[in-house]
């Protein structure tokens, strides 16, 4: 009996062990299957297999294959070993949507980037194009290039961490040919100018030119060791061919300015790709537009870089863009980028972003994207949503970044959904906390996005300050009895001054308080030079007029209508 019991126990134990083994094997297969489910075979941002973080990809709302995203179920995030590759993950299928930050004017403090990078990501951006200009912490012989408010190396590290945290790919941009005003303005580099009198462009033949830009590129690349793309600018090379060195070269090369441009561009593109294996180069395309595909192909540029076709117009010639795509395909380029504008692409001193203008620009680009199936052998890598802050180094500021945020939201949502339809509007409203009214050029409501206070305060200044000051200056008694002539000679009737002095003081007090509050908001986002410049360009003239009239009224009132005398300080 004991032996039978022992035998039964042994059998039962074996059955339990077999069941346990089956259960473990089943869990292992399930876990392995889940892990395989979240393996991505490689895409725009990554090469080769990689582990993809658990995300819910948005459903397709767009009419073309470039915005055909698949809805995926959320799955557990697999463990990532410490030190493993945790490069930013694309959040959309198809062409990447990259937000351009132009730092050559009104560069925001890093603490503001901490607030807007999550906003960019939630709006549908996949990355950020950082056009550093003089905000990069150049060192050594290049220290002179730094702005007094340039970011520190610690700031750059924080920016990189913020981008990674918010799944945003960082693409650095360093100009290597044109738009080098921030470099060539320094007397040390005058001899490298293509046109001696102008700081715009580099003389490509001077031996110091290539060494200079290679040093600049190297410092930025060293600071961005994980960058998969590097933008080398190379647009609007003003005056190319005008230096004596260039004229000598052209004389010996059949006057081919295009080939001269390509020689320099290829030299820098090759330097970038050889300096770090796997880095892909981007350049603006405008200098390529008049160069024959055969000449481009002969240069080898097509094997080193991808052109960015840019157009910021409201009514864009989409057929013309198609011709450019065909030309670049003929030249041998395997991929292209597009570039739109969400701000900074209209007036050189634009203060308020025209929403319909920017929307129509993006709808035109969507039309071009829809046509890309006609070019199956050329890849659309993505679209750069440019947000220009100056037209060039020496010009005034365009719209501030917080002012352009509703436009950016509108443009990103339009690209995401294929149009700025009701779903796009609702999503933008949910994220921003205000309703975008394209026809009114405004986002109505208090707004929950970072910088919304500046957005609303700039709007109030934009629509009211000058209008209210001009209305006061047209006051019957100011025009007739307190003109510049009267103030110059301290000659006015106290009775006339009494008719407008109270109104003048009330308006001045109102705006002094408002501008002080506005300045405090600006100080939270921008460095002192930006605050001063914006105030000087948009506020001070009107405020100074109010202050001068108030001071003169108080002084002349005390003279009790005496005879004319020259104004004294």
TrEMBL record:
Keywords per UniProt: Hydrolase
Record InterPro entries: GH (IPR017853), Glyco_hydro_20_cat (IPR015883), HEXDC-like (IPR038901)
A Pfam family: Glyco_hydro_20
Catalytic reactions of this protein: Hydrolysis of terminal non-reducing N-acetyl-D-hexosamine residues in N-acetyl-beta-D-hexosaminides
Limits of the Glycoside hydrolase family 20 catalytic domain: 150-292
An example molecular function term from Gene Ontology annotations: beta-N-acetylhexosaminidase activity
Top-rank taxon: Eukaryota
Catalytic activity, EC: 3.2.1.52
Biological process annotations from GO: carbohydrate metabolic process
Similarity annotation: Belongs to the glycosyl hydrolase 20 family.
Protein name: beta-N-acetylhexosaminidase
Source organism of the structure: Salmo trutta
